[in-house]
């Protein structure tokens, strides 16, 4: 096994350890803490975070998840499910559709229709939405999905979304709408916990998490993987912190990739396609707060970019042995 072999990042997980619902309250989730200098692992609860953190500034992702899954029908009457992967320019959307479609097919959703403009080999489709033969703007579609759409729970949760997910699958500081998946490390923060962190310098970035975050790595040599891109924008406060010498904690892999992309490019906004792994380590961010990720994913490889593959897999084995809950609604880990 080696750092560029996909199978080196594999592990087995019982279904019972996949969180179907979040901890209640959110900050009562378990928190595994890994100390880089000593390679020591300690077990805590998330609400203990303020007393555990070393001196640092904290950067959060304030993206807001929209209801990206909508149900409708073809003109034939056949039922269809459409999942918006990514908001594009010119009122176009990259989507996944459950059901066979071809170019120029029309799909009906309440009083609007989607027209398939392009069919791509990777299974995604390019669509535009219309009402009374007038193309609808991105904002109009976001308003429509807010009314008729469903919370885009990841496929591994294996249940339908419910009313509580509208709140649970959204961070308390979500502000800028555009994500189709939550930056899940953020989901553990409560108002009470945020008030206890006010002595730490804080800033926000926006990275709109796309469906690409769940994309499989197809190549056995991970260096051959083509990373998905996601729109990001950094606040001036975040830029000032990154350009300073204060130690940084990134809340989640999305923040980490944004910090590290800016550190390499100095671009305040754009498309982030940075792939962090043990052969492409962080150059600016010091500490990482994140959830537990899917085997053989770019996200577990990002964790390994901080502490190496061997230690990452050791942590995951420990978390499994201690019955931590995994994935979006699961427990968290802190690398300091």
Content-based structural category: alpha+beta
| Shape summary | globular
SSE pattern = EEHEEEEEEEEEHHEHEEHEHEEHHE
Main sheet characteristics? 9 strands, mixed
Q: Rg to the nearest angstrom?
A: 20 Å
Helix content: 10-25%
Portion of residues in beta strands equals: 25-35%
CATH architecture of the largest domain: 3-Layer(aba) Sandwich
Distance between the termini: 26 Å
| CATH homologous superfamily grouping of the largest domain | QueA-like
> What is the CATH fold-level name of the largest domain?
QueA-like
Number of domains: 2
> Total number of helical segments?
8
Low-confidence parts, pLDDT < 50 over ≥5 residues? none
CATH class of the largest domain: Alpha Beta
Cross-sheet strand order for the largest sheet = 2-1-18-17-15-3-13-14-16
- Strand count: 18
**Average pLDDT:** 96
Short description:
The chain is an alpha+beta fold and 336 residues long. It is built from eight helices and 18 strands. The longest helix has 13 residues, at 253-265.
